[in-house]
Amino acid sequence: MTKPLPIDINPCQGWMSFKNVITKEKCEDILKLASKKWKNGGVGAPGVETVYDDKIRKSDIAFIDEQWLYKDVFEIVQHTNIQGQWNFDIDGVEVVQLTRYHKGDYFNWHLDGNGVLETAEGKVRKLSMTIILNDDYEGGEFEFFLDDIQIKNEIGTVIVFPSYFLHRVNPVTKGTRYSLVAWFRGPKFI
Q: Beta partners for 159?
């Protein structure tokens, strides 16, 4: 990826969103990877037992370990890390997660990382990425705390933000929402 991604949202917000980065066909290929892998989504952190609480999160998840997918998401985040002027020291990505939200499902306000809590490898989550894999549903908007903007549900949209940003997925009101989530890590912030 040699040219800048087409920014949909001003990076001065502290997060970035790009439309049409992932084709509809590639989104469909990604969704096929989750076949028969779905399980109840919980809330957890590295080294902490997963909690299943419908007041916080109601969704299904599937973890995906496909090298071509890691290559694609890592290329996007490396480029965005520079374009967003974060320039975080990123040296890896955790196992990629597909998330499925049926009607009524959601993920309440949460952080993906705080720059202090370490993974098993002694790293911290620095950047998070969400890719919207379909748009034939209603509700389920992605939003950041204290931000008036709700990101539109458009297939192939990529959202990248510091993992310490408080965010949520609003309840789905019709259909089923699918997304890919990836967390990029590196050494602790100094």
A: 17, 130
